[in-house]
UniProtKB/TrEMBL annotation:
GN (gene name): deoC
Gene Ontology molecular functions: deoxyribose-phosphate aldolase activity
Record's keyword terms, sorted: Lyase, Schiff base
Family: Belongs to the DeoC/FbaB aldolase family. DeoC type 2 subfamily.
Protein name: Deoxyribose-phosphate aldolase
EC primary class: lyase
Catalytic activity: 2-deoxy-D-ribose 5-phosphate = D-glyceraldehyde 3-phosphate + acetaldehyde
Native source organism of the sequence: Micromonospora sonneratiae
Pfam families: DeoC
EC number of the protein: 4.1.2.4
Pathway where this protein functions: Carbohydrate degradation; 2-deoxy-D-ribose 1-phosphate degradation; D-glyceraldehyde 3-phosphate and acetaldehyde from 2-deoxy-alpha-D-ribose 1-phosphate: step 2/2
Magnesium found in the keyword field: no
InterPro entries: Aldolase_TIM (IPR013785), DeoC (IPR011343), DeoC/FbaB/LacD_aldolase (IPR002915)
SUPFAM superfamilies cross-referenced by the UniProt entry: Aldolase (SSF51569)
Amino acid sequence: MTATTTSARSDLSDLGRTEATLRAFLHGLPGVDQVGAEQRAAMLSTRSIKTSAKAWAIDLAIRMVDLTTLEGADTPGKVRALSAKAQRPDPADPTCPPVAAVCVYPAMVPVAAEALAGSNVHLASVATAFPSGQAPLPVKIADTEAAVAAGADEIDMVINRGAFLSGRYREVYDEIVAVKAACGDAHLKVILETGELATYDNVRRASWLAMLAGGDFIKTSTGKVPVAATLPVTLVMLEAVRDFRAATGRQVGVKPAGGIRTTKDAIKYLVTVNETAGEDWLHPDWFRFGASTLLNDLLMQRTKLSTGTYPGPDYFTLD
């Protein structure tokens, strides 16, 4: 480790001590070139890949899916069915890989934990007054601790966007630090709700804030607002995790969520990951798709590649 790296790490570790130092750092980050980011994302979305690479990309995308149900009408039966599908996405093809995780509300964690027992599929739970993030910190901590105690090994927390947009960065930072502590050994994904952050500069600042506070992943969206994941926003977040690792030596994952429905879309994201952050992020430990409908399209495309026949939309279970 060089002296420069050691100094950089020490400086970053001190940033959250005061509102002033945190604000100075976040507002000192380079501004995002909006036109450049959107043009680069558009260019990357036109990249094509060979058929052999497409088969590999589809299996990788399946392994990256956080299969999600976050509805008020969720039932134990639905969660058990989703958990079974997560482990065997295509029951007719044992070579099909499992997904990365099942993501549910805290109340459904015990059901999912029982259904996923003995598998390698992670159990994620949204917490901290999802999706609004508008609850007192003790409530958010209790929400997180209850989900972890029930079996969740990943927590998807949502930041208080009102505090962030009001410039109360230390408040957001302290909440993330506290929730991370409540997670224990569970990984923490910090949801920025980028559709409400208004600018790419805010997305970059929120990304760095979440990473400085200890987030293991930064996630675009709850899926509960009109504008969810977009390719330019994800590109900005990938640049942030790349630069954060260069500055600190710590790697942080990225999870776009909401609105990613087709294999074509998923491949665009994988190309963007490779070209922006690099191959190190092409792994479920470092990149996830938050999705409910994406998996079925990936399975249909996978079947088409292996059999030459494109199955109907109702061939696989609808989640």
